[in-house]
Amino acid sequence: MKFGYFDDKALEYVITTPRTPLPWINYLGCNDFFSIVSNTCGGYSFYKDAKMLRITRYRYNSMPLDSNGKYYYIQDGDVTWNPGWQPTQTPLDFYECRHGIGYSRFTAKKNGLKADLLNFVPLHDTCELNRLTLTNESEAPKSFKVFSYVEFCLWNALDDMTNFQRNLSTGEVEIDGATIYHKTEYRERRNHYAFFSVNAKPDGFDTSRDAFIGTYSPASDPDAIRNGGCTGSVASGWYPVAAHELHVILTPGESKTFLFVLGYAENPKDRKWEAPNVINKAPARRLLAKYQTTEGADAAFAELKAYWENLLEGYHVESRDEKVNRMVNIWNQYQCMVTFNMSRSASYYESGIGRGMGFRDSCQDLFGFVHLIPEKARQRIIDIASTQFEDGSAYHQYQPLTRRGNADIGSGFNDDPLWLIAGTAAYIRETGDFSILDESVPFDNDEATCVPLFEHLTRSFEYTVTHKGPHGLPQIGRADWNDCLNLNCFSDTPGESFQTTGPSEGPIAESVFIGGMFVRYGKDYAKLCAHRGLLDKAKAAMTEVQKMEQTVLNAGWDGEWFLRAYDANGQKVGSHECEEGKIFIEPQGFCVLAGIGVKEGKAEKALSSVEKHLDTKYGIRILAPSYSHYYLNLGEISSYPPGYKENGGIFCHNNPWVSIAETVLGHGTRAFDIYKKTCPAYIEDISEIHCTEPYVYSQMVAGSDAKYFGQGKNSWLTGTAAWTFVNISQHILGICPDYDGLRIDPCVPKDFGSYTVSRRFRGAMYRIHISNPDHVEKGIRKLTVNGKEVSGNLIPITEGVTKYEVDAVM
Ligand code: BGC
Ligand code: IFM
To answer: Is the pLDDT of residue 270 over 90?
Structure first.
């Protein structure tokens, strides 16, 4: 069952009922000001950091679901309704929500009145614009009222929801015509404020939630609206909000547009602190001046659209399969941008408080983002590397505002260092910019410790080399990619048994997965050494890589598949000898994509075992059989009920690893089959089962051992976005950036047909036509570049050439 449809021409998903199985959300904002908006106008805004600078308040765990947003109430006669349906939930005569690329648009009709609401964050301003157009579609004149409503968060979102003894006395606002300023914290020299304004003279306002909504009223039935209008309240402490009241009269057919602006402003750094508590309104006024007319708003919207259209031209495929086209050209790239911006901080499943930027997450997010805005990717790599420790280990997370490592979480996830090599290599393959390796980058943000970025990569590499266990495999530490595989924790106090308590690191527990990573990214490290002329270092690195490869093939092999790990007692994890959790997905996918066991036939065997033991109709499970009870020696993984999350869920993130592994072996049909099973566009028809948005990936789909098999959770912020983009764009469609140029190496189903990819690469545009007259699954036999046949599958870069017409025959 569907709850909407794709409008590919408009680059939109159109939701046709507000009653989606879960709120279906979108992200607004590309730079510093961000908003989350659901299909019923729920959501919130923040500046740079969803924890530290939260602008509006949201209630996670709310009843009804998804409460608090930016609401417009329309009071027409005795009916009050909202264009996004919530919070009044008044049944609408027509409802539509179009989530687009960086904007959302709501159209609703009730009793002959039409509301068109367009929400977006302009490219160059720190605000969200809501353009509300009301049209009288009835035969008679209409006179009605519009009320706007936002509730301010007192900045630090965690403090806001816990520290009531203080916060109920700090709230301050100021009203200046149509602009309501939220200035809590200004007094204590925080230097920032928020504002909510409309480009019309309001007929009333409120700034106290108790006055507008009412102390005991729900947001669906505000006191002020019920009792005849706003009260002119000026909040002092308690709950500051901003609400405008506007009286509108429309003749039949007439329209009127209002522009509402929710903004954020900061003072110049040299503001005098002894100045009185009167905010400097100049920055807000400058911003608002642009959005007094619809022309100003429309120009900003056109600029945003053009920006996105240009970005998405960076990779564009035209194939026979419209679902591939739609995902590759629009939604997958868009999700990659969002994961790059948000890491794992703010979604409807991440509260914006718990996690900032993840070290491993952000490194992987780069894979799907780097072709879009390489300069931003460059800066991100430097930010991430700056949180590394001198011994090569790293803070697992850092806060986006301060870019400092999060000491509460600390380090000890032993895959983290290698992801830095992976992200940097992806950046250099895309851009050819080896100079990034010479950037001077500190350890743990301590400027006194700056060394070239290349040295950081060396420390990453060496960290694995010097942290091996009894079999010669890498020590797992607190966990590897699988956060929940905590093999070094033994606390038997309930609730104290995960990564953070007990001995969380140890010399015995080992990870085969990190072994696979080391082989894969160790080769990149060796190439970078060689490029710097460090040939001995490159050779020594390759010796380590080969040694690890052998170790994985021996100590990491279980007979039919790769083992997952050894626990702190030296016992096997992910082996046929285990009672539960006999086989895990991660080492099968990663070892094979790293090329391990290909010539020995072990790779083929491992992937057949995946198909036999882990595959389901909704994707490949992370492990099987799921753990039926808690295991002290395994940690958090066994804390989940069977079939959920890391305990046997379909973790979408590592499905593409297996798909890529299949392409390494030339299995185009199987690779594509795996791609389709978790791909949102292919499962749109089962939205009532899948529940999460049909236009983006979710972190997890419940596995076959779960009660709700097929149900998605944790949509949007997942490494799945980047990895599926790598899989489909580089390994299936086969356009792969390499150090010396684009490599063309498709691996598709026999009947996939010919297709064309336009690809921006190092300042040039490539138009690559791939045909498959012999219906093979892998590889090309003829490559013609600008009319000249070249040998091999690499398109050589020719200085000064900005257009490449490429013809590849499979
Ligand atoms: C996992 C969760 C886990 C959390 C905290 C996440 O990465 O997906 O299952 O609860 O880490 O350890
Ligand atoms: O690898 C992690 C990731 O960092 C956060 N989400 C879950 C993954 C698997 O545990």
So the answer is: no
Q: Which atom of ligand 1 is nearest to the CA of 499?
A: 12
In a domain, 538, yes or no: no
Cα–Cα dist 172/152, whole Å: 10
Residue 397, beta-bridge partner list:
358
Rounded Cα distance, 43 and 36, in Å: 5
- Is 68 within the bounds of a domain? yes
Question: Whose CA is closest to atom 7 on ligand 1?
Answer: 483
Out of 357, 500, 636, 718, mutate this one to test ligand 1's pocket (max ligand atoms within 8 Å of CB): namely: 636
> Rounded to 10 degrees, what is the CA torsion of 489, 511, 405, 155?
-70
Which CATH number does the domain housing residue 206 bear?
2.70.98.40
Q: Cα-Cα-Cα-Cα dihedral of 366, 372, 375, 379, to 10°?
A: -30
CA dist 209 and 233 (Å) reads: 9
Beta strands in 33-161 (DSSP E): 33-38, 43-47, 54-56, 71-76, 79-81, 94-99, 103-110, 113-120, 127-136, 142-155
Q: Where are the beta strands (DSSP E) in 484-599?
A: 510-511, 565-566, 572-573, 583-584
Sheet strand arrangement including 698-701 = 650-651, 698-701, 712-715
Helix (H) or strand (E) holding 317: strand 315-318
In angstroms, what is the C-alpha Rg of the chain?
28
pLDDT per residue as tens digits for the range 319-348: 999 999 999 999 999 999 999 999 999 999
pLDDT class of 274 with cuts at 50, 70, 90? low
Q: Is 254 within a domain?
A: yes
Tokens of 353: 């408080």
Any idea which residues carry the catalytic annotation? 483
Total count of domains within the chain = 1
Torsion of CA 531, 533, 537, 538, to 10 degrees: 40
CB contact at 8 A, 536 and 744: no
Angstrom distance (rounded) from CA 604 to CA 595: 11
Q: What is the pLDDT of residues 70-113, one digit of tens each?
A: 999 999 999 999 999 999 999 999 999 999 999 999 999 999 99
Element (H, E) at 537: helix 535-554
d(CA 780, CA 251): 66
Closest CA to ligand 2's atom 9: 482
Q: Residue 584 and residue 513: Cα distance in Å, rounded?
A: 10
Q: Which of 674, 671, 673, 655 is nearest to 663 (CA)?
A: 671
d(CA 187, CA 279): 9
Which position has the token pair 């912020």?
A: 717
Pocket test of ligand 2: the residue of 406, 621, 646, 653 to mutate, having most ligand atoms within 8 Å of its CB, is: 653
pTM above 0.70, yes or no: yes
Structural domain boundaries, residue 64:
12-309
Contact partners, residue 505, CB within 8 Å, separation at least 6: 412, 475, 477, 478, 488
Classify the C-alpha dihedral 806-782-318-301 as positive or negative.
negative
Inter-residue contact 802 to 763 (CB < 8 Å): yes
Q: How far is it, in rounded angstroms, from Cα 278 to Cα 666? A: 68
**Cα gap 506→509, rounded to integer Å:** 7
Domain annotation covers residue 33: yes
Which residue minimizes the CA distance to atom 6 of ligand 1?
Answer: 483
d(CA 587, CA 87): 47
Please indicate whether residue 57, judged by its CB atom, sits closer than 6 Å to ligand 1: no
Ranking 186-190, 345-349, 428-432 by mean pLDDT, the lowest is: 186-190
Token readout for 672 is: 């594509």
| CA distance linking residue 620 with residue 676, whole number of Å | 11
- E strands, 568-725, are 572-573, 583-584, 615-616, 619-620, 623-624, 650-651, 698-701, 712-715
